[in-house]
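input
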Amino acid sequence: MGLNVVIVGATGAVGVEFMNVLERRNFPIAQLTLLASCRSAGTTLRFKGRDVVVRELTKDAFIGQHLALFSAGSGVSKEYRQACVEAGCLMVDNSSAFRMEDGVPLVVPEINPGEAVKALQKNGGKGVIANPNCTTIIALMALAPLHRVAGIKRLVAATYQAASGAGHAAMVELQESTRDFLDGKPVVPKVLPHPYAFNLFPHNSPMTANGYCEEEIKLQKESRKILADDSLRITATCVRVPVLRTHAEALNVEFHRPITVEHAYALLRESVGVTVLEDRASNRWAMPTDVAGKDNVYVGRLRRDLSQDNTLELWVVGDQLLKGAALNAVQCAEVALVGKLAANSA
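output
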């Protein structure tokens, strides 16, 4: 028995990764429907060796569907939420639209899978699961195992974020502007606010009154919700760097209880979805080129903060389009629907 699955925003960078992840993980699909704006309707995409024509998104597109994977921006998610849920279709949303809404589970399946199951049980198998922000997912994959043991008191994060977080058009702009720069041509930014090739700048999300950009606020608020700990003190500086699809994060973590570097390494090596990659003798740690296209989040360079007790430094790298977006969303659907499907079929 398979599920009828809809992808909203199918022609975008995350939409394409949705299809790749569904195929790789052999997600039980009876029928796949690809939806996008009227501009993209009629486009043909490949899934499991066959062509699938993209249809225009309408409010009746969710009738008879079991799962809708959304990655078309918060405005689209808000507009089509009611139609999706009323059709009895589970909505897994990759935008920021519902992440902090009470009653909507914000889920990283390796950390809090039970939140998705509980929310759906309350709503008769319908409703919304929110996919966290990519920066939050990648950080918490490394932090959650340590938090369970030692309790995080304060996090200071510096993130180095790839073009993919701003969408396919930003990735294309990085590629084209790099060619233009090397060819001695003028570089005129169109998607991002500043020249991107051989450059970096503080994250381009909207600035708030307190001096933090929205990306930095997301890391603060979402981490507290996922870890179910409102006492967490979190500060971040998010930076856009000229990398195509992989985020890197330098994390300084103060704990309530002592934890050694050796114990932290042991916990991370045992954690599902985490890979420790390093060669201290060669000063070699995970880089975006190592991690692009990989499902796991990569961790290394753990060390004791010499300036403060009960504090460790970590280096974390993750593919923004995979674990930071499409993979995590599909895993949410697997927890919520595939497990239920298997139980019903037994």
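quick obs: Residues 3-131+325-345 form a domain with the Rossmann fold fold (CATH 3.40.50.720).
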